[in-house]
Amino acid sequence: MVAAALTAGCAAPTVALPDADPSGAPTTVERTTTSTSASTTTTAPPPPDTTAPGSVEPGTTVVAPDVVLPVDQLGPATDAIAGVRGGSPRYHRIDLNPEGIGLFVDQGGQAVPYLWLGDGLRGPGEPAPPDGGGATFPARGAAFDRVPSLVAQTEQFTGGQVVQVTGVAAPGVGVLWVMNGVRSDGSPIAALWGADGSLRGLQG
Description:
This protein is an alpha+beta fold. Helix content is 15%, strand content 30%.
């Protein structure tokens, strides 16, 4: 499973987000299966399949799985990357899900995947062209310590549960934090946050 994750780059259905406005003006987050923004496209899991594929009967209560995201492991994971790569690595994307943290490190314009599982770093995997336009962001200024609060605020605003967090590089902005999740009725939630804690978009 580790080798597959490193090879596939945590492949999953895509969630296309609008281009970020550097001024901080709010935008709208929309769930789709087609990439429309090179700089802010990320991957996220679909809502749980609870009845027929893609449908939930009105009034049905869907219990989301107990999800524990490793938000407190972002610091150790990026410290480990700095230890093996040296210098100040830049990232194309960072994915957090209950299984671990996928880190896509820039190497000459290619994305080199690593996987943090809590007990150490796995990888590197094979370099591959990055998703989007190749923008990167540094660990410094990515506000890793703010992510747990952004998850809590997303859940408070939407009444749902966040099941995946992705940090994506946005030209002129740095990093944007994308929250994806599900409500108890199976409907999706999503939020887009700046590293400064500004809410850029909300669905749900």
